[in-house]
Description:
With 302 residues, the protein is an alpha+beta fold. It is 25% helix and 28% strand. The protein contains four helices and 14 strands. The protein has helices at 4-9, 38-93, 141-148, 188-194; strands spanning 104-106, 122-126, 129-130, 166-169, 172-181, 202-212, 216-226, 228-233, 236-241, 252-253, 257-259, 262-272, 278-284, 295-297. The N and C termini lie far apart (124 Å).
Amino acid sequence: MPYRWLAEIHGSQNRYPPTPRPDREPPTRGRSIHLTTRHDLRKLVLQQEICSRFAFKNRKFYEGSTMNIFRNIVMLVFGIIIVLAFQICTAATGDTTRSIAPYFTPATSTTKAPNADGFLQRWLLLEPINKPNRTNTVFVDSYIRRTLDTLYFPNQFTVVPHDGDKVTVAGKELTWHALDATNFNVKLFRFAYGLYKPIYGVLFWAVTVVNSPQEMKNVRMAVGSNSASMWWLNGEEAVILSGDRRMVMDDCVSKRLTLKKGQNIIRGAVINGPGMSDFCVRFINENGDPIKDITISLDAGN
């Protein structure tokens, strides 16, 4: 009979399928496949078995992926809960751990020499002025000059303040602090944070007095700042650092300057939107070597 081989596959020699109608082919699942030999049927069975195994493996893979996604979501949720709980506890108990130490120490009345690399570490720093900027890309030369030439408090470009002096800017009272930086760079972010002041979208003013034992010509002021800044020597613009930048020592160097014998007043303004704020300043000679035979004080009367 034409379908006797089907009975052999089913394990019985005595059972035969009914004789098909002449106008029909043997029923199959899926697309129509003409089975003419026992080899074709075995091939089909093998293909179906392979497809079943592949589908099972895929199911396990997707189940594993789903579990990984679920696990990551759970970890993220727990992380958020922990952070929120920490913030709530901090707010409830009060943040009493802020301090400008170990980045600053109070300045003394005695003069101070630059550090071993010539960096000036003694400064009068004004608490930050609120100057919101969502991005630092606005810090082009024209913006810097317009913003830093603006008068925020009386005698801004002439005063040599004392520790504890106060000024009022936009209705807010701000205090000058006489400090020695413990690093070569002055960490303004840590200064503001330690005093519970705004740390982003801010403008800092800094003043110091450099005492030269003799007139020094052809020296250069080398400055690095985060982000933009502008610096003056004895009332004259010395160097401007524009753009969104990180603090790098000697990032910008002024034209040739003259340190007069006696006192020389350095004044600087650093502006930043988002990000950390700091600066470093030193003088270098024609060979690029740091000038160290000078002293720093904070009183223009001495």
